[in-house]
Amino acid sequence: MREKGKLIVLSGPSGAGKSTVVFKAMEGREDFCFSTSVTTRKPRPGEVDGREYFFIDRERYDQMVDRGELLEHAEYVNNGYGTPRAFVEQRLAEGMNVVLDIEIQGARQVYEKMPDAVMIFLIPPSLEELRRRLEGRGTDTQEAIEGRLARARQEYEEARFYRYIVVNEVVDKAAAEFLAIVTAEHCRASDRLHLLK
């Protein structure tokens, strides 16, 4: 019997390196996938329904919210976004580890609905390093960088419900820690007691 996958909720401040760490961890692995969200926004050129997002209309989105079909949902720039529960549960049943890269508010919604989710908070080694990374991107104004740093401090205060904290000082080490957490979660006695029968 194939082992059920784990739902991995990854959060952290902008600039912490979440995508970099996860893509490094997933290299050469076929047991991981990203969750595909639903959105009410229109597809951009090159986007494919079911790949970047499931593109749905507002009526369908509101129905999904009302029926509890989304693990988490939020409004952003007048469009709805959410994580479809059925998609996640199907992938988990297939043995896939499903990664959600989401904000703390969404993570809290997922945790309330699926308390066995693997909650990982990724941080840089310091706020000074976070500032350096944000400035190094060259994409934000100084005002935007100060806003992101203030938001990071706020997220640190709100992140106390996460089970694990990974420090991304060196990407390879952070990716190894991420994988070690997932491996340990798969070895939980509660998931394997049936093997002793």
Structure description:
By secondary structure, this protein is of the alpha/beta class. The protein has one domain (7-196): Rossmann fold (3-Layer(aba) Sandwich), CATH 3.40.50. Helix content is 43%, strand content 21%. The model has no long low-confidence stretch (mean pLDDT 93).
Indicate the overall shape.
Answer: globular
Overall pLDDT: 93
Strand runs, count: 9
Secondary structure class reads alpha/beta
End-to-end separation in angstroms reads 15 Å
Note the main attributes of this structure.
197 residues, alpha/beta, Rossmann fold, four-stranded mixed β-sheet, 21% strand
List the helices and strands and how they pair.
Blueprint: E1 7-11, H1 18-26, E2 32-34, E3 37-39, E4 53-55, H2 58-66, E5 70-76, E6 79-84, H3 85-93, E7 97-101, H4 104-113, E8 118-123, H5 127-137, H6 142-158, E9 164-167, H7 171-186, H8 189-192
Parallel strand pairs: 1-7, 1-8, 2-7, 3-4, 8-9
Antiparallel strand pairs: 3-6, 5-6
Helix pairs in contact: 1-7, 5-6
Q: Would you summarize the structure shown here?
A:
The chain has 197 residues and is of the alpha/beta class. The protein is built from 8 helices and 9 strands.
